[in-house]
Amino acid sequence: MSWDFFLGLFPQLVDSFWITLSLWLLSSLIGLLVATGIAVMSVSKQLPIRWIALGFITTIRGTPLLVQIYILYYGVGNLIAQVPGIRSSFMWPILRDGYWYALLALIISCAAYSGEILRGAIMNVPKGEIEAAKSLGLSKTHMWRLIILPRAYRIGLPSLGGESIILLKATVLASTITVMDLLGMANYIRMQTFKIYEPLLAVAIVYVLLTFILTRGVALLERRYQY
Amino acid sequence: MTEVFRGAIVAVPKGVGEAAKALALPPNFRFRLITFPLMLRVALPGMGNLWQSALKDSSLVSVVGFTELLAVGKIAASQTKFYLGFFCTTALIFLALAIISNWAFSLVSRHLNRGFA
User: Fold this and answer.
1) What single DSSP character describes residue A82?
2) What stretches pass through the bilayer (chain A) (predicted)?
């Protein structure tokens, strides 16, 4: 294994590193927002709203992420490509690119898993605090925004951190739909130079570093927001 | 799986293990009749999670070329250009397998929890 070649790999991985990082961070943050909505819907008192939320969570958690990515990219992408006149419109460079389909699939998946975690956290908020909020006369919006949701985020913080690490490893699947993320670039280098271990080892090191940074960040947040 | 089993063995009450030792049962009898059934009750949710995640990760094998369910679906879809239909059918098959496994695990869990509150 030649060290010059190995160290010369890292500058080539910079562009794909930004793609992986943006896929991971965007899907984490937007997925967390959607997950909050799903979790609030799943503890609602009206049965149809609860069924929609629980059905969404069960379906997305019961099917593999790769199948969801294929449904969006090949299935929906094919339908979009058949719309007459779409190829000459200004949206075509966006609709043709696999990055947005992978981002949408990761957002949906993160929303389902984080929604399940937040649902458990909302149900574990101490009832005494909710009763105190009601006795103070807080409206439902204020009660949710000031009491229940902050408490639920603190309770669910370790599990949400673990879910983010799983999401980082799931962004690898975007390389199967022609997104040039870290693994896509590693495969490209492998096919150009016929060296198998060096590109994959370099990419593995980058993923370990990212996971380490995230774990430290979550530990820092846990220490600050202990309940 | 090792972590799940380790946590479950630690969760068995110490008094039960000491009572089994007081009865002078040999070690393999102690494990087979006393520790193992109690440990299985605690370990079952973790095992259920790992089972479901292994079921979904089996679809990743299609990326390295082995023809399993998702790979066959992809071949069928690319032959007939009926992408959405075949991939949705594959998703429904995975979902049916997941729902049936969940139901089976809940049956076993109810059987194992039959002396406890």
Assistant:
1) T
2) 16-39, 51-73, 98-118, 166-189, 201-221
CA–CA dist A77, A81 (Å, integer): 6
A44 contacts A140 by C-beta, under 8 angstroms: no
Q: How far apart are CA B51 and CA B1, in angstroms?
A: 10
CA B96 – CA A67 distance, rounded (Å): 14
pTM of the model: 0.88
Within 147-206 of A, beta carbons closer than 8 Å to B belong to 173, 176
Note whether B94 contacts A64, CB cutoff 8 Å: yes
Residue with tokens 């439902």: A140
CA distances from B62 to A66, A93, A168, A213, B68 (A): 10, 28, 20, 31, 6
Sign of CA dihedral B55, B61, B67, B71: positive
* pLDDT tens digits along A100-151: 999 999 999 999 999 999 999 999 999 999 999 999 999 999 999 999 999 9
pLDDT above 90 as % of chain A: 76
**Which of A64, A70, A74 lies at the smallest CB-CB distance from B56?**
A64
Length of chain B (residues)? 117
Chain A residues close to B99, C-beta within 8 Å: 58, 62
Residues of chain B found within 8 Å of residue A66, distances taken between Cβ atoms: 59-60, 62-63, 70
Query: Does the predicted interface ipTM exceed a cut of 0.90?
Result: no
Residues 6+ apart with CB under 8 A from A3: none
Asked if CATH classification 1.10.3720.10 holds for the domain at A22-177, the reply, yes or no, is yes
| Domains along chain B with CATH numbers | 2-112 (1.10.3720.10)
Distance from CA of B20 to the nearest CA of A (A): 37
Please state the domain extents for chain A.
Answer: 22-177
Determine the residue of chain B that is closest to A72 in CA distance. B84
DSSP-derived secondary structure letter, A83: S
